[in-house]
Amino acid sequence: MAAMKKLAAWDCKEILQCAILAFKHLLPRKHNVIVLNLLFELATWHGLAKLQMHTASTLRDLDASLTRLGQDLRQFKKITCATYVTLELPAEVAAHGRQTAALATCQKSSAKQLANDSAPTKWEPWTRDLSTVKLHSLGDYVDNICRHGTTDNYSTQIVSF
After folding, report:
1. Closest of 138, 156, 158 to residue 68, by C-alpha
2. CA distance 41 to 35
């Protein structure tokens, strides 16, 4: 799953539906409970967010689900992520090397620095950052649904004429 790229919305829904069974009993009990609760809350929030018709109670449920999702994410980061060392995938390491090389080329860096930066000698531990725009924008869903209607009424996809 980690290597999957360019996922559509229905791919995420399908992954969430299968993930709970796939992750069940994968980790020690303490971490298993945290991961399964997080997956369940992600599926709950996603299901509520994608409803085609909302009422005051479904919007309250969506807001409450977001609160629980935030708590579950913080617990996951604090307990489970702190226990396991996670490394970037080889493709991500290569992409970072290419990005560093491109930036160095743009800045007209010396060839020696370019060679050192573009060829990482080891994989760096990957840490989860809960301060991303994507996570922060989840809190705006209820207001946006109230203002603009359900999320099936509009798209953020870039169109060309």
Report:
1. 138
2. 10
